[in-house]
Design brief:
By secondary structure, the protein is α/β, with parallel strands linked by helices. The chain has 18 helices and 31 strands. The strands form 7 sheets. Strands 15-14-16-17-13-18-19-20-21-22 form a 10-stranded mixed sheet, sandwiched between helices. A 7-stranded antiparallel sheet has the order 8-7-6-12-11-10-9, covered by helices on one side. The protein has a 3-stranded parallel sheet with strand order 1-4-5. Helix 3 crosses helix 4, helix 3 runs antiparallel to helix 6 and helix 4 packs across helix 8.
């Protein structure tokens, strides 16, 4: 090749230009100072593409010193404002101008750069993405390798086995920083050129890459004390049927569960389970999408995988609301904004499956406390799956009620309570409620758990067709609350039916009317930063439940002026604005 060539940043950071030079032997290689400045800036930011670019430039320098090519540096360094606007094309324009000024062929792997150069009449050569590249990181994996852990000057470590049954296997020799840097550069280069891979995040000191089915994290100083690469790969893809779940849980998934949390410790098998759950809903004819950062779930092509837009999951959530999926898998929920996005989508009617790191199943529910109002949690979460060692260890049922908390006896202490029960047995495990100004999570301890469980199951079986609520205190007194129209039916002629029920459960029963107070629709006013709900001064300082189309939304205390103020930026505020705009019926119930 007799003409000089000028590479742009794309073919330098992906490592292809040195190979191109060896194969084509151009008369001269022109390197723009703008390109040098961009590579230097990326390296100073601790980004892997900067280090990969520096390594490629180092190869070109060695080729020049060996007499293989003639290397020329051209132009001036860009101004600070041009570097800041690199994404807008300012640096690319300087590189194009360098090629034009030196009468060189611009060599690029960027289709937009190629197109702009052609429009401006600049000679350009477009390098297609390379299909066959080295696979250094794969050399550490065997069929049963879960993850690979590489660190400079340390022997490689591999986790071999499956969740709950694995061992650490060490490599023979420690890797030098240069050897490990070559592996890191190879990972980034391939991710940029493989249509099924992507660089999910690249910030100072940390790079997250999804390379085919591997999730890879590369860290450097100042984040870590040395170059380190962690690669995780699923060892097997399961179907939901392979978990051998209880038929009642499968029925729950298909008929009732719409706010599902899958929790467990790191490496417990949470992602593998939610993949199976996503495929189950897809096979049921549901439209399923995922929210991931990074996108590492291994799901079928019918399931669209989405990530954050401009660094924001809220923006991605807005897009999802327009698409109206039946179910969305959120892998994983970590930040406060993640919890709000999950809640917002669920309140909008989207079935949600969230993944949360937790040491106990109840901890995943507690992580919602303080981020969203307590009364909304049961509308967002109805089922909690705790995964351990790759299997479903525990299933929780989350419900909302108004009652006297367990251990209290005074009737005037009744309040909204979130009950967390064992799904298969109905055993009450925890209660969450406000005590003073604090939200408390109280484990339920009872010496007669088995007897109580049997009592509750008997009552539920006998009153299957009647709406009811049971309050069973430690003293053994049972109160049964039913709507007014069912009181006579439950008592029976001469009290016959209630006596039969007492004999079956071995406890005396007091039947009371389940009281609801719906004074009518609320007057609402929507302003820029708040929604005002005018309840009435006669309800001042009372706790009321706000209902939309008779479905509970949240619980609040009425002010002295008979008003409830809700911020429009909150989950409740957004739900209220949506309900008002849709003309939904908004009412309240005095608790």
């Amino acid at each position: 090749m007799e003409q000089s060539v000028a590479p742009d940043t794309s073919v330098i950071v992906d490592g292809r230009f040195s190979g191109f030079v060896r194969e084509n032997s151009p008369a001269e290689v022109v390197i723009s100072e703008a390109l040098i400045s961009e590579i230097e800036h990326q390296a100073n930011e601790g980004r892997s593409i900067g280090f990969a670019g520096m390594e490629e430039l180092r190869k070109l320098r060695k080729m020049h010193e060996a007499g293989e090519i003639k290397l020329q540096f051209y132009g001036k360094r860009p101004n600070e404002w041009q570097i800041k606007r690199a994404k807008s094309g300012e640096v690319d324009e300087l590189i194009r101008q360098a090629a034009l000024d030196t009468n060189s062929v611009l060599v690029t792997g960027d289709f937009i750069q190629k197109s702009i150069a052609e429009i401006k009449g600049i000679k350009v050569l477009y390098l297609e993405p390379t299909k066959q590249m080295s696979r250094q990181i794969e050399s550490y994996f065997t069929e049963n390798t879960m993850s690979v852990h590489l660190k400079e000057n340390v022997r490689p470590r591999m986790k071999i086995g499956k969740p709950g049954e694995w061992k650490i296997v060490y490599g023979k020799e420690a890797q030098t920083p240069q050897e490990l840097n070559d592996v890191a550069n190879d990972i980034v280069e391939r991710a940029k050129n493989d249509e099924k891979s992507q660089v999910e995040m690249d910030i100072r000191g940390a790079t997250v890459v999804q390379l085919m089915n591997m999730r890879i994290v590369i860290t450097r100083p100042p984040i870590s004390n040395g170059l380190e690469i962690t690669a995780v790969r699923p060892t097997r893809k399961f179907s939901l049927a392979e978990y051998n779940l209880n038929p009642s849980l499968m029925t729950r998934f298909s008929q009732r569960a719409e706010g599902i949390i899958v929790s467990g410790k790191p490496g417990a098998g949470k992602s593998t389970f939610v993949q199976a759950l996503a495929e189950f809903y897809n096979s049921e004819g549901k439209i399923v999408k995922t929210l991931e950062k990074p996108r590492d779930l291994q799901v079928s092509d019918e399931i669209t995988q989405l990530t954050q837009v401009d660094g924001s999951m809220e923006k991605t959530g807005d897009i999802l609301l327009l698409e109206r999926p039946d179910y969305t898998v959120f892998d994983e929920i970590r930040t406060s904004s993640d919890f709000l996005v999950f809640a917002d989508l669920r309140l909008a009617g989207v079935g949600m499956v969230g993944v949360i790191h937790a040491s106990r199943s109840v901890d995943s529910i507690q992580r919602f406390v303080g981020k969203i109002d307590l009364g909304i949690i049961p509308q967002i979460i109805d089922t909690v799956i705790f995964v351990e060692n790759g299997a479903v260890k525990e299933v929780l049922d989350v419900k909302y009620t108004v009652k006297v908390p367990s251990g209290m006896t005074e009737e005037d202490l009744a309040r909204p309570v979130i009950e967390i029960k064992e799904f298969f047995t109905g055993k009450l495990l925890y209660e969450i409620y406000t005590f003073g100004e604090q939200v408390v999570v109280v484990p339920i301890m009872n010496e007669h758990d088995t007897d109580i469980r049997n009592v509750l199951k008997l009552i539920d079986g006998e009153l299957e067709e009647i709406p009811h609520k049971v309050d069973l205190t430690k003293s053994g007194k049972l109160k049964l609350f039913v709507p007014e129209q069912y009181v006579g039916e439950l008592i029976g002629k001469g009290g016959r039916r209630v006596r039969e029920l007492e004999e079956k459960i071995g406890l005396g029963i007091d039947i009371e009317e389940m009281k609801y107070d719906y004074p009518g629709e609320i007057t609402t006013e929507v302003r820029t930063n708040r929604v005002s709900l005018y309840v009435g001064e006669e309800y001042r300082d009372k706790e009321v439940e706000i209902l939309v189309n008779d479905s509970p939304l949240f619980v609040a205390r009425v002010s002295r002026n008979g008003v409830i103020q809700v911020k429009t930026s909150s989950v409740q505020g957004r739900a209220l604005r949506r309900a008002i705009s849709e003309g939904s019926k908004i009412r309240f119930s005095v608790l």
